[in-house]
Write a structure and sequence with these properties.
nine-stranded mixed beta sheet, single chain, 2 domains, alpha+beta
Length: 305
């Protein structure tokens, strides 16, 4: 290459370098402007979301710390963290109904106990005993001036409950007793099964002879066969009377297989607390059984030897 050609090549290189340098300056200036705008946008977003720390370089980024209502974040902020903060912000702002149910039972309701299709509301003296938590005989046998209670309702821990006594045919001991929600079964061939709201006793033939259901805090349903020497009281047969059987017929009485529809599965040691599903239908109550009878004292049945 001669001197003239080399000079022309050098001039062209200088022009190309100056043009390239000018373009690079423009690009750098545009990038700086963009970064400034981006910083302003991020700062505005941080202000709206309650983020109170600057974006730092990843190399010096501490671990993320969440405080308060999950809307305040310190340390390096990634896209995922910002998204999580937005979600937390809106979830914390959403109204909540809390854990309380919308509907709840009035625990100060008047106590009611139902026997078969008969409904009773205790008043005056009987109600006073029940509200004080004192088991008071509602149903009992009386022989020679001696009273034997078989159903004694009362309030315990805000719930209507009842102490119950069952006797086996020809026996004088309590074959089954229920006291303060705890039962004791002595009859060797009977069985009992229970859940949180119901308890059932079956005899040696697997026939239910006693059932208690708590349908609400202050309402008990009681059905069964209550007996003593020379007397049987039949409850829960779909009627509006307490049906007594007296004398030798009472001692010979054997409940039919359909006396009460069974609620639980047996034997109870194999099926503890397991109810039959679906539950069998119960005898229908007559249309005039919706009334509630006020009762101020218990009912005692006199028995003669």
């Amino acid at each position: 290459m001669d001197a003239k050609t080399a000079k022309r090549w050098l001039v062209r290189q200088r022009k190309w370098f100056a043009s390239t340098l000018g373009i690079l300056v423009v690009v750098v200036a545009a990038f700086a402007t963009f970064m400034g705008n981006l910083s302003a946008i991020v700062e505005k977003g941080r202000t709206l979301l309650g983020l109170q720390s600057a974006i730092v370089a990843p190399s010096s980024a501490p671990s993320m710390t969440v405080s308060g209502n999950n809307n305040v974040v310190t340390g390096a902020v990634s896209g995922g963290q910002v998204a999580g903060t937005i979600n937390n912000f809106y979830s914390a702002s959403a109204p909540s109904h809390g854990s309380s149910p919308i509907f709840s039972e009035n625990t100060d309701a008047h106590p009611i106990f139902s026997i078969g299709c008969m409904n009773f509301a205790p008043i005056t003296g009987l109600l006073d005993h029940i509200n004080k938590g004192e088991p008071y005989p509602f149903l009992s046998f009386s022989r020679g001036g001696i009273q034997t209670p078989v159903i004694s309702p009362y309030i315990k821990d805000g719930l209507l409950t009842a102490d119950v006594s069952l006797f086996a045919p020809g026996q004088v001991y309590e074959a089954f007793s229920l006291r303060a929600g705890r039962f004791n079964l002595l009859a060797p061939n009977w069985d009992v099964n229970a859940s949180e709201r119901a308890i059932e006793v079956v005899n040696e033939s697997g026939i239910p002879i006693f059932q208690l259901i708590r349908s609400s805090a202050k309402h008990l349903h009681i059905d069964g066969l209550f007996r003593t020497k020379n007397a049987v009281l039949l409850l829960g047969r779909g009627g509006l009377i307490i049906q007594p059987i007296l004398g030798e017929a009472a001692d010979r009485y054997v409940p039919p297989a359909d006396f009460l529809p069974r609620m639980f599965r047996y034997p109870s040691w194999q099926h503890p607390g397991e109810m039959i599903e679906p539950l069998p239908s119960r005898p229908a109550c007559p249309p005039n059984s919706q009334g509630i009878a006020a009762i101020s004292d218990g009912v005692s049945f006199p028995i003669r030897d």
